[in-house]
Design a protein that fits this description.
Helix content: 10-25%
Strand content: 15-25%
Number of helices: 2
Number of domains: 1
Structural class: alpha/beta
Number of strands: 5
Shape: globular
Largest sheet: 5 strands, mixed
Strand order of the largest sheet: 2-1-3-4-5
């Protein structure tokens, strides 16, 4: 569980594939008023979850059907962060469409708290 006395610190995990199209760090940095660091998932750069009280996973134009190697590493990181008590905010894939063509019941933003 995260120590309540610990100063908040955010790890912002940039899941963009093409920074010419999507630059989530630019977007999120305008709203973060506490210390934060950015990590680029496509380059395999991930934080030590013990160093952060909050994790933000940005959206991505990556395909869940053609999974890049960094996706599994990020999934492990999320499990570790939640188990360690970090607050995790992530955007579900736009591919959350059911086989029948309807949108799934999962909200677009998912908040997990360990």
């Amino acid at each position: 569980m995260t120590d309540k006395k610990r100063a908040p610190r955010v790890a912002l995990i940039d899941n963009s594939i093409d920074p010419g199209i999507y630059r989530p760090v630019e977007h999120w940095s305008r709203y973060l008023t506490i210390p934060w660091d950015a990590f680029i998932a496509r380059k395999g750069r991930f934080p030590d979850t013990a160093d952060y009280t909050h994790i933000i996973l940005t959206g991505s134009e990556a395909s869940i059907l053609e999974r890049d190697a960094w996706v599994d590493a990020e999934a492990s990181l999320v499990r570790e962060a939640v188990a360690g008590g970090a607050a995790v905010l992530g955007r579900r894939s736009a591919s959350g469409v059911s086989r029948s063509g309807g949108c799934s019941a999962i909200p677009k933003w998912i908040f997990l708290r360990g």
